[in-house]
Design brief:
Layout: E1 2-5, E2 16-19, E3 29-38, H1 41-47, H2 55-58, E4 71-79, E5 91-95, E6 107-111, E7 115-117, H3 124-139, E8 154-158, H4 165-174, E9 178-183, H5 188-193, E10 198-201, E11 214-219, H6 226-230, E12 233-241, H7 246-259, E13 266-269, H8 278-290, E14 297-302, H9 306-314, E15 321-325
Parallel strand pairs: 8-9, 8-11, 9-10, 11-12, 12-13, 14-15
Antiparallel strand pairs: 1-2, 3-4, 3-6, 3-15, 4-5, 5-7
Helix pairs in contact: 3-4, 3-8
Amino acid sequence: MKAAVRDRYGGPEVVRIDEIDPPVPGEGEILVRVHAASVNRADLDQIHPRPSFLRLFLGIRRPRNRRLGSDVAGTVEAVGPNATQFRPGDRVFADLFSFGQGSFAELVSAPEKAFQPIPDGIDFETAATLPHAAILALQGLRDRRNRPVQRGATVLIAGASGNVGPFAVQIAKWLGAEVTGVCRTEKVAFVRSLGADHVIDYTSTDFTATGERYDWILDVDSHQPILHSRRALRPGGRYLTLGGGAMDLVQGVALGPLTALMGSRRAGLMMWWKPFNAADAKTLTDLVLAGHITPAIDRRYALGEAAEGLRWVDEGRARGKVLIVVGGAG
């Protein structure tokens, strides 16, 4: 079968399509024929890798795992021994970030517990956009105790135009918040189209220096010190970052607990991510079916064009999700 692989670290140019043996589902696993997968920043972080200490887990000199791709939507092709949750022909989707990845391929095998059924009324392409980015957006708009943003709150989404941000804008609006999106100049109209009440162009305006204060700031990919961003919070406000450079992650972990001792404005790294949590996946598919959120699909690439799809996201050009379409999209 065909699959996107890489044998060394670098940019998207290291990704190529190779003929490899199809996987065989093992104990408790299912084999899925991929119809659509989507590109996430996490995929790129493992290619470069970023931050550099990820090499300790991925392989010091070269990646131990050649396969790529986390989000997947497809049809069950076969089931392994003692796999009882699904049958051949079932439509399923998953985030394989914690299960060996490999969704940029014609077939992928993983434990059946990694997958959830795709509800009727949701096609493969829509389902493929949700597992990683939309889950992060939903969980990034509630605190460690599972308390969501309150109705009437002022929410700022930094990085509102990429993978996670468009979902975060729409979910925050569904929660009843007044939403400000932050993006670059050419994406301002796109972020407004998502329902944002206000849009800040970060190329000309630093949101921490406008004098506006927010109840909640979700920073999809932080590029400035946490304490700098914290000053844009109202008393009792919360700033959460989902990632960034090595120093941003270190600050998020180290300074997060300290900010709780510095007053009521809290800031730090979101540490309570539950990858592809079943209840959250159900919430998201319900929101899609009800029309409260609509995944923004920017571009579609064939499997043979996986490197080009990764490059489009890596260059920050995507408005929403980029798909790798392998089979039918029904």
